[in-house]
What we know:
The chain is mainly beta. The protein has one domain (about 5-140): Immunoglobulin-like. About 5% of the residues lie in helices and about 60% in strands. The chain is built from two helices and eleven strands. It has helices at about 5, 135-140, and strands at about 10-15, 20-30, 35-45, 50-60, 60-70, 75-80, 85, 90-95, 100-105, 115-120, 125-135. Strands 1, 2, 3, 4, 5, 6, 7, 8, 9, 10 and 11 form an eleven-stranded mixed sheet that branches. The two termini are about 15 Å apart.
Amino acid sequence: MGSAAAAAVALVTCAGESGALRVLDAYAAEPVTPDAAAVYFRVVNPGAAPDTLLAAECGIAARAAVHAQRAAGGMVHMHPAGPVTVPAEGALQLQPGGLHLMLEGLTVMPRAGDTIHVTLRFARAGAIPVRVPVIPYAEVTDRGGRS
């Protein structure tokens, strides 16, 4: 992760019945088109019960939803993944080339160095606000991922 993103790594804790969920290493890839942006992060659940990421919201996007990305037949396909589970005493990873939070219908195109604000809504932990630094697209693709 670049220096701007490393300096602004999101660490958010929310105590709930399932223990304290932590959202770590959040970042967004600088969009290459004005239509959408991808957000990546890790959710750690030290609790004894699983939790489910039900929804997300972002003030600069009309829609925010978890999508899955996979390659098939030489093409990359993305589709909504629906609610995703954070296992008990485990983690959920959203990363390039796999699950990611897709922000669609952007009202503002974020640039590298900006910070966007996302609210994640969990079944047990409730709403967790996350500050998400925007990094250059090249930093994401240099790690072998695609946003």
